[in-house]
Amino acid sequence: MARRKSYQKGSVRRIEYxxxxxxxxxxxxxxxxxxxxxxxxxxxxxxxxxxxxxxxDDILDELNKSNGVVIGGDVLFAHVLxxxxxxxxxxxxxxxxxxHSYDVMVSKWIxxxxxxxxxxxxxxxxxxxxxxxxxxxxxxxxxxxxxxSLLRVLFDLAVEYDLIEVSPIRPKVHRPQVVxxxxxxxxxxxxxxxxxxxxxxxxxxxxxxxxTGLRAGELVxxxxxxxxxxxxxxxxxxxxxxxxxxxxxxxxxxxVLSIPSQLVGILQEHKSSSRFIDSDDFVFxxxxxxxxxxxxxxxxxxYPALTKLGIPRHSRASxxxxxxxxxxxxxxxxxxxxxxxxxxxxxxxxxxxxxxYVHTDQKDMEGVxxxxxxxxxxxxxxxxxxxxxxxSETIQ
Length: 396
Known about the structure:
mainly alpha
């Protein structure tokens, strides 16, 4: 692929009029707040279109320099990382927690491989070599998928800013395939035992996790003003990441959830023993009133309880989020409604709820087997079929 002469070349058009001809150059100018504006300029004293293009090139070279772009077609991937990507994050109000994940993937994987490479030198083959390198590093399929998705966005940005004509990322050949496997899930009996076995100071927090299906960050962001004991509701409207308040994961995550009377009693008892009970105080907090570090729920409450009870601990499947999976599964099992489970977990897509958070256990499957056996294998009562189906015959 031929490299571009500059960040943008613009175009030249010859316009004929009564007394002669004139060349007009068209190009785009970057707006301070992002985006582009179409511009045109009359290129005087040019006898040919080629001369007019050279004059426009000189003008655009100065413009491209002011935009911090390497002239001569040598636009490095570093320009996307250093100039375009930060603007994209700000424009789209990407949360701090998400930015941190992106920063790790860029600094450890994407940046070292692509930063000093010319954008137009990145071919689908080179992108494929990068994905093969990730595979050789024995990264999980899901993490490789996350890196792939970020890389795709970065090259899409380069396309949107006219740095390259097409992205070298090809989903059919580059996108890692993730085979979903169902994570081990607490049984209801195990979850109940854990709730009762955690240290008393964590009892209310773990009980709230189990019953509401809140994310850990949402749980520790709760303030007393968010809990209505009379109406028995919790208003989920914020999250905490590394001690900083941020918005919830998605717009659908904001919701008012009903809570049972048992949890109301637990929370009222928790409040009576807390030193921080003003409306804007955090419900679950550190000794100085700051929101509780979610890691403490896992390391000081859930894990010790599992050890005490002799319940196996599974990697990335026995922490706070395990209670969220359990809540979704129990809600679905008891109501038979995926939609209600979705509303409880506040997923934007019902597919997320049904494919990931609604689990089945062996008892569920035994119940399905019994039902199918009764319907399909038990001998029908004499006359119930043959007498009701006109023209039916016995097969010899």
